[in-house]
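Task 17 of the worksheet. Students: predict the tertiary structure of the chain below and write it out as structure tokens. Keep your answer in the requested format; marks are given for formatting as well as content.
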Amino acid sequence: AESKLRARRKKLSVLAKMDKREAKLKRSIMRKAKIAANLNKQKTKPSRKNLFNFKGQLRKLIDAIQDKNPNLFVSKSLKKQLYYQQKVNSLSQEQIQIQQQSAIIKHFNQIKKKKDQLKQIQLQKERSSRRDGDNGKEEDDSSYGSELDSSKGDKDEENFGQDQFRQLMVVKLDEQNQNQ
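Model answer:
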């Protein structure tokens, strides 16, 4: 008897669940039908003017909030993009500064090299004129070295490897003199 009762109760509960589902479906269908009927009653769409007013108000509100907190409406990906862009910009600015500095240094180095070359040419001319005056007698290397030392004393700023350059030039000139 008890098993029969249990079976009957199960059947009833299943039926009740089915009824509930049907009722739910019916209600949703009716709701949709009512909405459709109301939409059909409004033959025209909701006025565009009101829609635009609403959009405008929304935009104003968003702008006002963004003024106070600019990152509020920015998506994470956009934030990342902005962050990396700022990094890249700062890097590029640093690189530009470095390039400018290196260009300036190169420019000054070129000027110094030209000045040194001019000095060397002048020294060579002086030596050749002295040689002509001494009837081809060779000059002491020690006096030539002292001339170079005096030219070094003119500018203390020329420390960009100019001393080595001068020494090389002295050696080359000495070799030329020995060959002659």
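Marker's comment: The chain has three domains: 1-42, 47-73, 104-180. The radius of gyration is 48 Å.
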